[in-house]
Design brief:
With about 575 residues, this protein is α/β, with parallel strands linked by helices. It is about 35% helix and about 20% strand. Helix 6 packs parallel to helix 7 and helix 14 packs across helix 15. It is globular, with a radius of gyration of 24 Å. Pfam families: Amidohydro_3.
Amino acid sequence: MHDLVIRNGRVVDGAETPAFLADIAIDNGKITAVGKIPQAGRREIDAGGLIVTPGWVDIHTHYDGQVTWDPYLAPSSWHGVTTAVMGNCGVGFAPVRPDRHAWLIELMEGVEDIPGAALSEGIKWTWETFPQYLDSLEGQPRVIDVATQVPHGAVRAYVMGERGARNEPATAEDIAEMSRIVGEGVAAGALGFSTSRTMLHLAKDGEPVPGTFAAEDELLGIGRAMGQAGHGVFEMASDMAPAENEFNWMRSLSVETGVPVTFGLLQSPVKADGWRRLLQLTEEARAQGAQITAQIACRPTGMVLGWQSTVHPFIGRDTYRQLAALPFAERIVQLRDPEVRARILAEPSRPMGAIGMILTQGFDRMFRLEHAGGLDYEPRAEDSIAALAKTTGQAPDAIVYDMLMEKDGQGYIYLPLLNYAEFNFDHIHEMMTHSNTVLSLSDGGAHCGVICDASFPTYMLTHWVRDRSRGARLSLEKVVSMQTRDTARLYGLHDRGTLAPGMKADLNLIDFEKLAILAPEMAFDLPAQGRRLIQRAQGYVATIVEGVVTFENGEATGEMPGRLIRGPQASPMAQAAE
C-alpha cells in the first residue's frame, strides 16, 4: 500500500512532456510511480478534472526575516510555491555583529520596503555567523522548503564596519576575509551569494547598499571562494551600466571559477530595447564558456497605489500630509469630506524627485487595477487615467482620488513602473522564450507597502496560458516547466521540479478553469502590526510538500513538512548511480 495515491489527474510533469492522464504514487516523501497504479494508498485523492504539476520553485524572494517567525511564508505558499530561495539582491541578516542588528534591519527596510518595526519585533537574533543563521532556520517548523544565499551587504558591513557600509574600496585583507566568510557560508549550505549594483537599492538613510560599487578584485575574490567551495550561484541586481564592463567581470568570474552568474533583467522605461543588448551579451558570454543567465519577470514591476500604500499620488500634498498619521478609519472619514477633497486636489505636490514625479503625477502610466472581469496587469495606453481624463474632461488626480475612495477607501491604482515601456507584454513573451533566461523576480515577502508579486506563479497560468488576449500565449507544459524544472536546475536543486519516480513529492493539484488571483488587500498581520499587501488565489485544490498535504482548497492543514535546503541536491538518477 502506498502512502498517497493521486488518481485520474491530468499530469503536467515539468519536463515539457505533453500533458497526460495518470495516477501518481508517493511513498516516504518521494514519487514512486507515475501511470496506472493498481495498488491502493493509505490516502487517495481523486484529481479527476484537475491538472497535477510539480510544486513551484521560486528563486527570488526576500523572506530572510519573516522565515524566522512565520512557518507559512504567505503569500507565496498560497500560490503553490513549495520551495523558496531567499537572500537575493545583497541584503539579508547574516553574518551580523551584535551591535549591527538595527543597521541590517534598516538596510532591508530601505531596499525591500519591509516594515522595520516588524523585523525588530519578529527576529530573535540567535546567530552571528552565516552557518549559525542556517542552524537557526533548520530548527524551525515550516510549511515549504527554504534555501538562502550569502548577502554581500551583510558580509561587507561585518568585515569592514562603517567603511563597508559607506562603500569604501576593500583592501586585500578585506577581500580575503569576505571571501572566507562567503566560502564558509556556501560550504555550510547556502545556495550562493548575492549582491546589488543598482542605484534603485538604497538603505533607509538613502545610502546605496554596501557592495554597489565593489571593484572587480572584490567580486572575483568572492567568486573564487565559491568555486573552491564547489557550488553556488552568483546572483545580482544591477543597472548593468555600462553593460560591457559588467559583462567583462561576470564572464571572467564564471569562466575562471565555474560559478553560474545570474542577473535581473527588466525593460527600462527610458531605453525600451536595452534588454535586447543584454541578452545579446549574455549569448556572447555563454559562447565563451560563461554560465550567465538573466532572471526575468512575467509582468511589470507594478506599484499598487492606495491610501494605505507606501506611496500614492497625494502623499506630497500638504492637506493630506496633515491627515497621514490618523488611523485609517479616521483618515477615510476626513478624505470623504468634500471640502477636504477640494483642498487636496487644489494643492500642488511637494517636489519628490524624478521617480516621485512618476509615482504622484504619472497619470499616463496609472490604471484601474480591478475590473468586473478581474485584475488587469496588461492594460492599454488608452485605458490610462490620463486618457480617461481627456475623454471625460475630469482632472486626472480627481479620477484617481475617487478610485482610491472605492471599496470604503480601499480602492487601488496600478502603476507599471518597469517592464512596460510600450504598454504591452510582447517583449516579456520574447524574454520568457529566450534560451538564456529563467523566470524570477517575484520578490515574495518584500515591498510590503506597494507591491504584491508573490502571485507570479499563479499569474503565469491564468494570464500567459489561459487568458491573454493581446498577443501570444504560452503552452501549459512550457509554463509549468519554467517555474519548476528550470528554476530548480539553476540553483542545483535536481531532486525536484519534475513528476517522475524518485523525485521529491512536491505537487500542486489545480482546477485550471477556476484558477484566479484575487485583488490585493492590505493586511496588518506582521509583528508590531506591520502592514503588507497580500493577494490570495482560488483554484488550488491541494498543495503537497514531500508527500504531505499542506493546503486544501486554500486552507492550511497545519502540517509542517518543509525544511531548510543545504546546498545543491542531487538528482535521484545520480544518487542511484552512486
